[in-house]
Known about the structure:
Elements: E1 2-7, E2 16-22, E3 25-31, H1 44-47, E4 63-65, E5 71-73, H2 76-94, E6 99-103, H3 109-122, E7 126-129, H4 136-146, H5 157-160, E8 163-167, H6 171-174, H7 176-185, E9 190-194, H8 200-204, E10 207-209, H9 216-229, H10 235-241, E11 242-243, H11 245-252, H12 257-264, H13 268-280, E12 284-288, H14 290-293, H15 298-311, E13 321-324, H16 331-337, H17 352-362, H18 377-385, E14 391-395, H19 399-402, H20 407-415, E15 418-423, E16 436-439, E17 448-451, E18 456-460, H21 473-484, H22 496-507, H23 519-523, E19 533-534, E20 563-564, E21 583-588, H24 605-610, E22 616-619, H25 621-626, E23 634-639, E24 644-651, E25 659-663, H26 667-671, E26 689-695
Parallel strand pairs: 6-7, 6-14, 8-9, 8-12, 9-10, 11-20, 12-13, 14-15, 15-16, 21-25, 22-24
Antiparallel strand pairs: 1-2, 2-3, 4-5, 4-16, 17-18, 18-19, 21-26, 22-25, 23-24, 23-26
Helix pairs in contact: 2-21, 3-21, 3-22, 4-15, 9-12, 9-13, 9-15, 12-13, 17-22, 18-20
This protein binds ligand MGD (2 copies), iron/sulfur cluster and molybdenum atom.
Amino acid sequence: MKKIQSTCNLCALACNIDFYVEGEKIIKVSPTKHYPVNKGFCCIKGLNLDKQQTKVKKSIYPLLKDENGNIKEISWEEGFKVFVKKMTDIQEKYGKESVAYISTGQMTTEDMAILGHVGRNYMKINGDGNTRLCMATSVVAHKQTFGFDAPPYTLKDAELSDTLIFIGANPVIAHPVFWGRIMEHNKDANIIVIDPRKSETAMMANEWIDINPKGDLSLLYTVANVLIENEWINKNYIEDNTEGFEEFKEHVSKFTLDTVYEKTGISKERVYNLAKTIYEGKRVSLWWTMGVNQSYEGVRTAQAIINIALMTGNMGKPGTGANSLTGQCNAMGSRAFSNTSGLYGGGDFDNPIRRKAVSEALEVDESILATKPTIPYNAIIEKAIAGEIKGLWILCTNPRHSWANNDEFRKAAQNLEFLVVQDIYSDTHTAQLADLFLPSVPAIKKEGVLINTERRLSKVNPVLQKEEGELSDYEIIYNIGKHLGMGSLLDNWKTPRDAFELLKKCSKGMPCDITGVTYELLEGPNKEGSKGVQWPFKEGDIISEDERRLYEDCKYYTPSKKAKFHFEDVRENPMKTNEEYPYIFNSGRGTVGQWHTNVRTREIDESVKIYSEKSYMFMNPELAKELNISENERVKVKSMNGVCSEFDVKISDTVKKDHLYAPIHYIETNALTPSIYDPYSKEPSFKTVPVKIMKK
Ligand SMILES: Nc1nc2c(c(=O)[nH]1)N[C@H]1C(S)=C(S)[C@@H](COP(=O)(O)OP(=O)(O)OC[C@H]3O[C@@H](n4cnc5c(=O)[nH]c(N)nc54)[C@H](O)[C@@H]3O)O[C@H]1N2
Ligand SMILES: Nc1nc2c(c(=O)[nH]1)N[C@H]1C(S)=C(S)[C@@H](COP(=O)(O)OP(=O)(O)OC[C@H]3O[C@@H](n4cnc5c(=O)[nH]c(N)nc54)[C@H](O)[C@@H]3O)O[C@H]1N2
Ligand code: SF4
Ligand SMILES: [Mo]
């Protein structure tokens, strides 16, 4: 029996799992004991990583839809030819940018890199990721404030904090192993949760701050003002390591305790106490996720969190930080190495120094490199609806379900001349719309690197061998490149290992320098096995500690080396409740055992047994009484975007009287969410939708 250590490719913790394999059968799955992230624990999703393509029928060969809608299996060779013919015909007829792709934070770094090379560099097309729905806000916030998309923390910081503040984050459900570490190693910490809903994490916390939806920016500015007025700030840190504080101080002076209740629903005493708690904490860490990022003012809200950490000196020290938790296993890989919003390794497409460095690393002429950032996800969908984009390639994401106002994706697909979906399942809502379906093997048969939420690189190793005819994402994309005629442009890209070596070279001298990381290091240099490696890790660096944080030297990546305070006036919610649409519909993760569009997790028996088959939403008992709605009654919910969806009602006091909460794992949820985005990050404002309820 062989033991193969690999990485869970679901959530952003990227736990390591040991697979015991006999022949071509996985006999046992157990969380890796020595791996610093999960130390012998994992959640039900990781434990069932072997259950992919087991219950649900898999395809090995491409599927092509003919004019009559009939689907037939074709050979790979034919599949590549059809792809290339259709996409190049469209480009010739309507221009290069009439084709685009949408990818993911769930493929390996090497997959994303070669996709960026084929799509962005060679085809000269736009290509965004589902990370736009998720981390785009944090990316922009980090870039503007720190000068680079570099989150400061290591996960251990949560164990070392005496005060942990979670803002719009529900790690009990979304990052369960991380939460487990806090419960095991930091029981006495003061844990505060800011969430309009009594989430599972709020239930476990010392204090639940039951904020009005999107009251966060007003709350955070008021807290900042109280900290300043009481001189509860770290003047030395501010002076030495930041810029823009005086302007920020002036800005927040308008946010007084007298008006905070009406803006946030939190009393002035509680807001004062929150500021005092931050002041009194010795090691304060602030953690945020989608309750912050998915907002029409997400970037400024994320920066308001960072500002509090900066002004109190809670940065770069154990147990501190303004810490954005990522969602998908490789969101960090896509951020630094996908060639979508910046060059490989970071840096703008128009930065001549970076262009030279990257073209030398890739051994290509500078003219090959993409010249501008991609247009964002929403623009790709809008252009498809408008008929400007005619060919679309979707990889490892399920937008017919997960995109905001998701019927818009159906409309977009309808208008396309050619939709290609590359997935491990051919029956997803998106794959069902495809003209050409390209089946990839799941990660259990793939090789590559994932970068987790604390910037830790770890390796996905093939636990099972591919069957005859099966291809990995890397091989599919590589072959498309070959059939497109890339020729010698693919010479340095033959395998994932080749791609990784190129990315290392591109990262040289950048904040995310990984020149010292090798596949061998990630496979485990000693008997114990791999512990992963956090970036930066330069050539010649040695691993002395399992956990490393950034900004310990107080040097940021801006030209002045100082972090910059960013702030702005609080915006009105572009979609406010009114008499006709009086309730706020919130959405997010439902259970630990369900993953996003529930494509992969439907294969986990233990999870299927406990979750509801039908879409449901939580409703407060008082509202249920007022509307005369009983438990499990199916009701219609209509949103301001004009769409109607149905949900079973689960009566629960975890939601406030005029709020509703629905898990995202059902396609009904995103039928209701609006096409509203943060102006800087273009991340959808998923979480607050005015709706009305109609009895059936
Ligand atoms: N089991 C499971 N785990 C997952 C995933 C999954 O699908 N299933 N997905 C992964 C991914 S990709 C991601 S991005 C993460 C997401 O992880 P989280 O962001 O922690 O999860 P969500 O449930 O989307 O949202 C968190 C909380 O934001 C709150 N919220 C809504 N509006 C507001 C607001 O205005 N202000 C504040 N302060 N809070 C608000 C919601 O009530 C919710 O409790 O989870 C990852 N982990
Ligand atoms: N209302 C609302 N909507 C949301 C959110 C919310 O909080 N509220 N959250 C948003 C967030 S944060 C996210 S990240 C998105 C997630 O949304 P999606 O990315 O659409 O969700 P997934 O179900 O993870 O889809 C991944 C797809 O990739 C396939 N896949 C898995 N492994 C592989 C592989 O190795 N190769 C290939 N080619 N395919 C593979 C799976 O079968 C699945 O079809 O949803 C967003 N939508
Ligand atoms: S906590 Fe996340 S990374 Fe760990 S096993 Fe569960 S889904 Fe996988
Ligand atoms: Mo996400």
